[in-house]
Structures are given as C-alpha cells and as structure tokens.
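Batch manifest, entry 17 of 40.
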Amino acid sequence: MKRFSWWCCAWFLVCLAACADMERKPDPGPAKPTPTAVSPKAKPKIALALGGGAARGFAHIGVIKALETNGIVPDIVVGTSAGSVVGALYATGYDAFALQKLAFQLEESSFKDWALFDRGFLKGEALEKFVNQQVSNKPLEGLKRKFAAVATELASGTMAVFTVGNVGQAVRASSSVPGVFSPVVIRDKEYVDGGLVSPIPVRAARQLGADIVIAVDISARPSGKHNQGSVDILLDTIAIMGTTIGAYELRDADIVIRPEIGGLAAGNFQQRHDAILRGEQAGFAAIPRIREKLAARQ
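Output type: structure tokens
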C-alpha cells in the first residue's frame, strides 16, 4: 500500500511538470541590437604656417594676436625665415602680447655680426644666440608646441625640416638669405634660407600631421622700381621666386591670411608697429573663414 502511494505521488508530480511546460510562454518580441557607444570626433590639429619676409615678419605677431583673442590656438607651428623666428618664440610659450613687447624692445644692430671674407656679410651667430636665449636653450623637441623650421639644403636644393636639435641653429639656417648671411653648417651639410624652396611652409605643416593649415603670406611682389644696389636686386629676385613657389604651395592651405604689407620694406625694422597692426587686421578678417573650417571638421 505504501508502494502504491509512492507511485501515485510520483505520477502526480510528473503530470504537474508536463502541464507547466505546456503553459504558453510570453512572446519575447523582436530582436533588439545592443546600442554601441559612438566615439566623439577627434579635435582637428591646427597648424600655423608662417612665411618669410624679413622685417615684414612682425606682421605674424599681429595675426597671432587675432587668433588668440578668438580662442584659436594652433597645435603645430612651422616657420620659414622670419616666420621661423616668430614661430620658435611662439612655440616656446610666448603669447602675442609678450611677442609684441619683445619686438618693440629689439635693436636691429644686435643682429648685425659682420663677417669678413666670407660668403655673406653677416655671420648669423648673433641671431642664433638671441633665439637660444629666448627659448632658454631648450631643444626643438622640448618646446611647448610642436615646431619646425624650414631651410634649404644648399648642395641638393631640397627642403630641410628641422624638428629636433638646437632651436637657434635651425632658425639661423632657415633665415640665412644667400649673399646676406653665410650658409649654416649642420652635421657637415650647408643650409640657407628656407624661402628658396618653401616660402610659406604648408607642405611641412602637413607632414607634421596638420588637419587644418592656416598660412600667413607676408611676401611682397617686386616693386618694379629700378634697383641700384646688389642687395636690392637680390631681394627682388627672392621675391619673384617666392611668389611663384608660394602660389603653388598655398593651394594646399585651408586658410591663407595676407596682411596688407605693401609699402613695408623688408629691411626696415622701424615699421614694426605698422606691420603688427596690419597683421592683426588681416587676422581678424580671417576669423569667420577659420571658424567655418573648424565647424566642418567637428
């Protein structure tokens, strides 16, 4: 009798389980994909490409003032000739107002270290020393912003982009106008002014990883006036070369800023205040175009 009761209980439990399985389970509905996290767009890298133009390079300071006022801070700075001087100081941490203060204190005579019986009438050592003092003797790779100085390798005529090593030496090489400054020897190679191959260093800025390149063109077309001296002829020749080569290179820039530097002599340091003002005006005029480019990349 006990065995019969046990079998009855077992049979009842089996039936109960079967009935439970027969109950309709709720419909889980259509499959839903797991939402994936959307990574924010990377901030575009902005490069400031500062062209050559001797004393007209003070206009670069005005452009930087306009950019800083509007919160536009470059990640990369590349300079040729005069642009390398301003660019190196800016990359080391000088803001626009500090650059302007320094510009007003400069004595042109402090850069004139005369060379006798050499391939230029200025050595350029004074410029190298000045730059190294201003950057506290930091190397190129130790500056706050990524910076490059563009020069021309004399033997091959190719572009040289200095991103490591002695800042003053690189700037000196970038600024050594043939016939005016003696060529600079670095690691057994001679270098002269970068404006011969890259007057506005847009290509170098791209090589350093720039997404948006803001180029500042301070070159001037030849005046057309009859030149009396050899230096005048040399500067006119370089201006012609710079116009032709620069026009080709500027096609790869996103924004080109051209301060109205007509009438400003390349060798006249006394016009520095006017040059800075014209650079500032051109910089402010370019802000809407820069914002448009930035918005399109964000």
